[in-house]
Amino acid sequence: MAEPISLASGLLTLATFAFQSSTTLYTTIKSFQSHPKRVRDLEEELDALSGVLRSLTDTVVATTEVDLSALDLPLLRCGNACKEFEQELLKCSSRSNGSRTSFRDWAKLRYMGDDIDGFRQLLAGYKSTINIALTDASLRKSSVTAECLEIYRDLIKNATDDLEAHLQSIDEKLETIFARNVTDSDAAEVRHIQEERLSTQKCLQICAQLSEHINQIQLRPIEPEALPERFTSEGIQQCRISLDHTTAKLERHMQDLVDRLMAKSKTAMTQDEIADLTRLQEEWKTARQCIDICSKADYHLRENISIIDNHASGDETVQFLVSTSQKTIHGKNRGYGFRIRQVGGHLSDDSLQQLSRDISRISQQDARIESPTMQGDTPSDPNDGVEKGSNSGFYERYGRGMTLTSKPDPDTTMNSKSPEDGPSSSQKCAGGGSRSL
């Protein structure tokens, strides 16, 4: 007999369990002949969920360097939800006294009080959370475009908004159950617990708002001698750590309050009602865990990834695309002009400063080498000395140019020409160094 699936089963086992449950549910739904629009939408969602779960399983098998243990609870809940929905579907079809080819009662199907669309949105929340966790892990080892990062940022925001709406819906359902099943003797205590729960929820919202405000604070890179900014940065970091600890305490207190409310409610409930309440409790925990995964992914995107697009034009341009910390860089250097120098990668502060000094010294040396060549050859007016007509506007089209010295043609040394008979012995050439003709 197979051992029951639990949080202690391990990430790979849980991922496999969720994948098998989703594919089994997909096959069961396909076995019914009637597929209205909402059922087809559910099939598409299940197919997409299976694809994400397959990617997760492949990632877990391929590497042990990525910690995805935060997905344990969402995976367990995802697998159980698919199995339980399949059981409800089979039960509903058996009550309709019809075969799978004639089943039409999709509208009557309910799971945790929601219809098929509600269940599809539930699966979409699992899928988005798993996808976000996988993307968060891959961003630390791969490079993507700024456009892809923007799509990822939108995915995090949309998933967070949907999960918060889902969590609010569960809270409302729990409120209804608590109000309906509490005895008169427990009413005063339940009211007190409810008030404390609302207060805890408000405190969690304040913590979330403060965390968002901290994320929006932008300080310029801190130099070793910039003590005020260093003190400020350290203070902000300590504030963030303290805020995380406070949030964790409030989350544990909220969980304790929900557990106490459930214990009070179960005394007057049937076994089926207790089963429904247990599902809601598990889904409440899962939704909060999914929101936490999205929050951490958003924090990592803000704090550990720099999106830079350097664009410069002109001669002697120097571009740096460098991280002196552990931040991942996603960006590119783009430059147009004569003798552009570009630097990219991860360097220490000392290496970056030394490299900057080296580039400056090389540029000065190049300027000294070119100075004798250019001295006296470049007119004060860029177009002075340039033949009018087809050669006018040389400077605007090609730059300052350099003077090239011509050697006499051996075949014409005996027949030298006067300046009026042909081109001058020196001509303008766009770019490049001196060379003999």
UniProtKB/TrEMBL annotation:
<dbReference type="Pfam" id="PF17111">
    <property type="entry name" value="PigL_N"/>
</dbReference>
<dbReference type="InterPro" id="IPR031348">
    <property type="entry name" value="PigL_N"/>
</dbReference>
<keyword id="KW-0732">Signal</keyword>
<feature type="region of interest" description="Disordered">
    <location>
        <begin position="361"/>
        <end position="437"/>
    </location>
</feature>
<feature type="compositionally biased region" description="Polar residues">
    <location>
        <begin position="412"/>
        <end position="428"/>
    </location>
</feature>
<feature type="compositionally biased region" description="Polar residues">
    <location>
        <begin position="361"/>
        <end position="381"/>
    </location>
</feature>
<protein>
    <recommendedName>
        <fullName>Azaphilone pigments biosynthesis cluster protein L N-terminal domain-containing protein</fullName>
    </recommendedName>
</protein>
<feature type="signal peptide">
    <location>
        <begin position="1"/>
        <end position="18"/>
    </location>
</feature>
<feature type="domain" description="Azaphilone pigments biosynthesis cluster protein L N-terminal">
    <location>
        <begin position="2"/>
        <end position="208"/>
    </location>
</feature>
